[in-house]
């Protein structure tokens, strides 16, 4: 699950040629001045959009802190910006993720949770799998009492093409451990999520 796929990687030149083919397919002339550098720009963009394949998300969570003075409440990181690409249409999925876990002795730096979101979202994805991968990784590495991941996102394959439904967002969640088994814990999480934003703390 966490290992990047290892098909033979085409060369940069092949990738740029593929962009020229798609430009011609769309009706363009790739030799037009404005498009001359487009294939190399697209290739560079792809390196950034899909850098998650080179990251091992489990490694990001290896460094944990155990001196938490018996902290035994929910840790929630909400409104993590999420940018991914739909694997069916290769267009952006833009949204936000909320991650919660109930620590069992160990906590992790919050920036690391955001990095796990990045590692999986900078790949071709479907939102359901992305949600599950993030939750499963946190759950298996940190071994908390429970893990919850909720993602809400807009899919450009739905908003800019096909059914053209701007403003529609999709919500997916994966609840593990106490968040799955204990309705009180799940309710507590939902109450934390629905609280108004505390912008005075996030400036
Ligand atoms: Zn799609």
TrEMBL record:
<keyword id="KW-0378">Hydrolase</keyword>
<comment type="subunit">
    <text>Toroid-shaped homodecamer, composed of two pentamers of five dimers.</text>
</comment>
<keyword id="KW-0554">One-carbon metabolism</keyword>
<dbReference type="InterPro" id="IPR018234">
    <property type="entry name" value="GTP_CycHdrlase_I_CS"/>
</dbReference>
<feature type="binding site">
    <location>
        <position position="86"/>
    </location>
    <ligand>
        <name>Zn(2+)</name>
    </ligand>
</feature>
<dbReference type="GO" id="GO:0005737">
    <property type="term" value="C:cytoplasm"/>
</dbReference>
<dbReference type="InterPro" id="IPR001474">
    <property type="entry name" value="GTP_CycHdrlase_I"/>
</dbReference>
<dbReference type="InterPro" id="IPR020602">
    <property type="entry name" value="GTP_CycHdrlase_I_dom"/>
</dbReference>
<dbReference type="GO" id="GO:0005525">
    <property type="term" value="F:GTP binding"/>
</dbReference>
<feature type="binding site">
    <location>
        <position position="157"/>
    </location>
    <ligand>
        <name>Zn(2+)</name>
    </ligand>
</feature>
<feature type="domain" description="GTP cyclohydrolase I">
    <location>
        <begin position="16"/>
        <end position="193"/>
    </location>
</feature>
<dbReference type="InterPro" id="IPR043133">
    <property type="entry name" value="GTP-CH-I_C/QueF"/>
</dbReference>
<keyword id="KW-0547">Nucleotide-binding</keyword>
<dbReference type="Pfam" id="PF01227">
    <property type="entry name" value="GTP_cyclohydroI"/>
</dbReference>
<comment type="subunit">
    <text>Homopolymer.</text>
</comment>
<protein>
    <recommendedName>
        <fullName>GTP cyclohydrolase 1</fullName>
        <ecNumber>3.5.4.16</ecNumber>
    </recommendedName>
</protein>
<dbReference type="GO" id="GO:0006730">
    <property type="term" value="P:one-carbon metabolic process"/>
</dbReference>
<dbReference type="GO" id="GO:0006729">
    <property type="term" value="P:tetrahydrobiopterin biosynthetic process"/>
</dbReference>
<dbReference type="InterPro" id="IPR043134">
    <property type="entry name" value="GTP-CH-I_N"/>
</dbReference>
<dbReference type="GO" id="GO:0008270">
    <property type="term" value="F:zinc ion binding"/>
</dbReference>
<comment type="similarity">
    <text>Belongs to the GTP cyclohydrolase I family.</text>
</comment>
<comment type="pathway">
    <text>Cofactor biosynthesis; 7,8-dihydroneopterin triphosphate biosynthesis; 7,8-dihydroneopterin triphosphate from GTP: step 1/1.</text>
</comment>
<feature type="binding site">
    <location>
        <position position="89"/>
    </location>
    <ligand>
        <name>Zn(2+)</name>
    </ligand>
</feature>
<keyword id="KW-0342">GTP-binding</keyword>
<keyword id="KW-0479">Metal-binding</keyword>
<keyword id="KW-0862">Zinc</keyword>
<dbReference type="GO" id="GO:0003934">
    <property type="term" value="F:GTP cyclohydrolase I activity"/>
</dbReference>
<dbReference type="GO" id="GO:0046654">
    <property type="term" value="P:tetrahydrofolate biosynthetic process"/>
</dbReference>
């Amino acid at each position: 699950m966490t290992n990047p796929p290892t098909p033979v990687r085409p060369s940069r030149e092949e990738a740029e040629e593929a962009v020229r083919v798609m430009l011609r397919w769309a009706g363009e002339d790739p030799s037009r001045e404005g498009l001359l550098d487009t294939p190399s720009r697209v290739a560079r963009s792809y390196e950034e959009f899909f850098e998650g394949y080179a990251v091992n998300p489990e490694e990001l969570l290896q460094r944990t802190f155990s001196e938490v003075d018996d902290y035994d409440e929910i840790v929630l990181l909400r409104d993590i910006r999420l940018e991914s690409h739909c694997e069916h249409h290769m267009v952006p999925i833009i949204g936000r993720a909320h991650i919660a876990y109930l620590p069992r002795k160990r906590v992790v730096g919050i920036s690391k949770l955001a990095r796990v979101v990045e590692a999986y979202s900078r790949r071709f994805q479907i939102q359901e799998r992305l949600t599950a991968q993030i939750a499963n990784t946190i759950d298996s590495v940190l071994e908390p009492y429970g893990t919850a991941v909720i993602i809400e996102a807009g899919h450009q394959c739905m908003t800019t093409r096909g059914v053209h439904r701007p403003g529609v967002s999709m919500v997916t969640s994966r609840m593990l451990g106490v968040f799955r088994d204990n309705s009180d814990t799940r309710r507590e999480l939902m109450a934390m999520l629905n609280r108004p934003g505390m912008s005075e703390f996030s400036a």
